[in-house]
Amino acid sequence: MKVWLIGAYGIVSTTAMAGAKAIEKGLIDKTGLVTTLPYFAPLDEMISFEFDFGGHEVRILPNAFVALKDHWDQNRHIDPDLIDKVKEELSRIVAKKGTALNCGSGIKGLGKLETLEEEGLSLRGIVNRISKDLKEFSDKETVVVNVASTEPVPKFNERYHSTVEGFEEMLDKDLREFATASMLYAYSAIKLGLPYANFTPSVGSSILALKKLAEENNVPHAGNDGKTGETLVKTTLAPMFAYRNLRVEGWMSYNILGDYDGKVLSARDNKESKIISKDKVLEKALGYAPFSITEIEFFPSLVDNKTAFDFVHFRGFLGKLMKFYFIWDAIDAIVASPLVLDISRLLLFAKKNGLGGVIKELSFFFKSPMDCEIVNTHEQFEMLKKWFNQLARA
Fold first, then answer.
1. What does the alpha-carbon distance between residue 339 and residue 33 come to, in Å, rounded to a whole number?
2. Residue 220, H or E segment
3. Which of 193, 257, 321, 346 is most exposed, with minimal Cβ within 10 Å?
4. Three-state secondary structure along 332-380?
């Protein structure tokens, strides 16, 4: 299958590419991939584990191998021998120039950028260029995944974000203040009939206009914000307190991270989207809203090693207050990149089964799943297995 990555030279994208090619060559096993668990074994009969990659990018680099090597120089997150063995494949992956429209002040931390809007293109012109790139790359087995940097919360407008006609009017009138890069990418993919996933907290395809477009074109899509680290633990542990009728009085989450993701999220406007995404899960998991603190801070020396310190204050029998602590310490690209491959395979599976619109059964992979109030990791996984098995037996 083919996967088009928005943010193709980022550490998650390049790690996904390297891992996929290493697996294809038999160099590593499939640890970390959900779709290779026995529950999903029939998937291999429909979608073999072979990938071609392309994508859009705003950073200036020659190819995906150079990007991967740049990340490796900072993080040492992959065996160096493995990098050399996928050099040929990744060197052939050259991203197309993308857009960073209304992506916030945080993207200044990414260094020198080249964007479509700098060419003087209108919104319609940007969409046409994105669509041209997608058409040249795609076939019937192509999925588009947004793994770009987090955008600020956009300026919503009822007229332009609620209907397909309104959205296209926004494009034609070049009303740039109401558009973001993630919207334009999502629109372009869905308009072309390509399944789309939003692995970021950005708006992507979650506005009503693009949900309607996906339904009209019978295109499967999913999101938002990949659930890979501290929130994964939170949505797995929070139900435990509910199951045992223990009252959570307060939950503090303090996240520190470096690398390009950390640089972007160090900007207040970009950080807001991420905190909103992380904050919503507690109330949904517990059924009430305890006092909560969620902080995300840039810590340069950590690079891609994301660390989270969580403190939970909970009340038990006889009203006794007690405490629970945990630390999550992981390489973000290592826990995130296999999910990009999983989501891509499952969205293509959904397309092959004639499904369109939001695939809420993929909520297992997201912090803020569209059209699904279930954030409990255990329930989400059972929902995913049930959905897959019903379609696989059909």
1. 7
2. strand 220-223
3. 321
4. HHHHHHHHHHHHHHHHHHHHHCCCCEECHHHHHHECCCCCCCCCCHHHH
Residue 253's DSSP bridge partners are 294, 310
In this structure, what token pair is assigned to residue 123?
A: 């919104």
For residues 318-334, one letter each, b for 16 or more C-beta atoms within 10 angstroms of the residue's C-beta and e for the rest, the string is: eeeeeeeeeebebbbbb
Query: What's the rounded mean pLDDT across residues 360-379?
Result: 96
What pLDDT score was predicted for residue 272? Answer: 65
pLDDT of residue 269: 61
- Please choose, from the candidates 99, 221, 114, 224, the residue with its C-alpha nearest in 3D space to the C-alpha of residue 171: 99
Q: Which residue stretches of the chain are H helix?
A: 11-24, 43-46, 64-75, 80-85, 87-91, 123-137, 158-161, 164-172, 181-191, 208-216, 230-243, 259-265, 268-286, 332-352, 377-393
Q: Provide the pLDDT for residue 134.
A: 98
85 CB contacts (<8 Å, ≥6 apart)?
A: 22, 25, 27
DSSP strand pairing (196-198 vs 220-223): parallel
Amino acid 23: pLDDT: 98
Nearest of 173, 168, 158, 161 to residue 191 by alpha carbon = 168
Domains and CATH numbers, the chain: 2-226+334-393 (3.40.50.720), 230-330 (3.30.360.10)
260 pLDDT band, cuts 50/70/90, is low
Cα–Cα distance for residue pair 331/67, rounded to 1 Å: 17
Nearest Cα neighbor of 223 from 344, 138, 55 is 344
β 305-315/247-257 pair status: antiparallel
pTM of the model: 0.93
Residue with tokens 């996984």: 381
